[in-house]
Amino acid sequence: IYYIMNYMFIMQGENMKIFTLSIRKNLFNITCIIFVISLVVFSVSNLSAAKNGLYLWSNNIIPALFPFFIATELLSHTPIIHILGKFFNKLMKPLFNVPGQGSFPLIMGILSGYPVGAKIVCDMRNKNVLTKAEAERLLSFTNNSGPLFILGTIGIGLFKDSSIGFVLLITHILASLIVGIIFRFWKYKDSNISSSNSLWQSSTNNSYNIGEILSSSIKNSIVTILNIGGFIVLFSVIISIFNKSHLINLVSILLSPIFNIFNIPPDFSNGIINGFLEITNGLQQISAIPIRNISFSIVICAFILGFGGISVILQVYSFTSKTDISIKPYILGKFLQGIISAFLTFLLFHFLPFLSLDLSNIVNVFEYL
Prior knowledge:
Elements: H1 2-25, H2 27-41, H3 43-75, H4 80-96, H5 103-112, H6 116-126, H7 132-139, H8 147-158, H9 162-182, H10 196-204, H11 210-244, H12 247-254, H13 256-261, H14 269-277, H15 279-287, H16 294-307, H17 310-320, H18 328-351, H19 360-368
Helix pairs in contact: 3-11, 5-6, 6-7, 8-9, 9-16, 9-18, 11-17, 12-14, 14-15, 15-16, 16-18
């Protein structure tokens, strides 16, 4: 009986291992099936969410980003990156441990917004302008939200206060630069020598037809903007499914002990979770919470703005997957940028009395810690 029981126990363990392994192998297939079923079950709300995603993409994303995509494509056929490389090399190398050419994705990433910085870095890596380590260092801090989105959409549109937009913009940029300085030690012992100067000079010395350049730039920009639009619509539908199926509420309950440690009110939990999925939906939900202590809302928005959300991470992954660049430094850098942005925002509100925003909840967090 003992041997029979032991044999049955071993067989059950083996069956459990096989079952677990089978789930891991078919996780993507199972997820797709559940997603299709959810599209049918929540078809009414999903249709509305998809329309909202398309509206957001067509009315906000295309006007803001499409011209920048074309501009960066056109600039890639000029010696501007080589010129910037010479001019900023003495600044970029000691601060961020990258060549001066890295100033181009940094500047364009700040001016245009997600995911322009990441796209430029990946393009430069594909052209061998950067080494793998240099590209990963740049990727960690050059893909940022643009001033039009922060000042217009968040500051004026959501909070009805331009000064809030300026505070978020300042802390967002400062946090990205701090992350860049920290990540200068990423793969510090990498001994690869960038051959960017000769390769970039040879690529820019070639003669091109202006019509061919413009046509190619527009086509590449259309592909990129369509890719972004697809992510926005998809995540709008996913968030709708999560809300309708009460998965967001379930996750909020599971994470409530963590939120309690940081003295985060329950009203903010759903907005934070949605912000982890997609930045715009999360920021909109948090800004709409009626609360006397508005500074608490702004600090949380600073974190979400710095992190960027899973939607942006997947957009960046769609670029890095075509290179040998790892996505890990980007994810780690964005999470770190979110924390630094929130902390800098707290400091600005704390030491600038003219903002006159109550910080009692945040002070309680530090007292608790």
